[in-house]
Design a protein that fits this description.
By secondary structure, the protein is an all-alpha fold. The protein has one domain: DnaA protein, C-terminal DNA-binding domain (Chromosomal Replication Initiator Protein Dnaa, Chain: A). Helices cover 76% and strands 0% of the residues.
């Protein structure tokens, strides 16, 4: 999924997985974590391990995205719009693989 998120966000996958604290990358990374939880059902500890982050960073990042979407933050909503259909696409890809 990281490849598809990176493509849709217009940044390299390595940048999303990296340690940069650039303001342009942080929300993208947090959206990726949110998708990992929502699409694949990973918990914060698993996401932290997979992304070499602390559990508290994962919780804070996901909460930031949830709160920003709830408050209709224009920047976060624009980013979310790019990837919000990924869960359905991932499901369809899985069905094709199984058949």
């Amino acid at each position: 999924m990281i490849v598809e998120v990176a493509k849709r966000m217009g940044v390299p996958a390595e940048a999303i997985l990296g340690r940069s604290e650039a303001p342009s990358l942080t929300p993208i990374r947090q959206i990726y974590w949110t998708l990992l939880r929502d699409v694949f059902g990973f918990n914060a500890k698993q996401i932290a391990r997979m992304n070499n982050r602390s559990v508290s960073s994962i919780y804070a990042g996901i909460k930031h995205i949830e709160d920003s979407l709830e408050m209709d933050d224009a920047k976060i909503v624009r980013l979310w719009e790019r990837v919000k259909d990924l869960p359905g696409e991932m499901e369809m890809m899985q069905l094709k693989i199984e058949n």
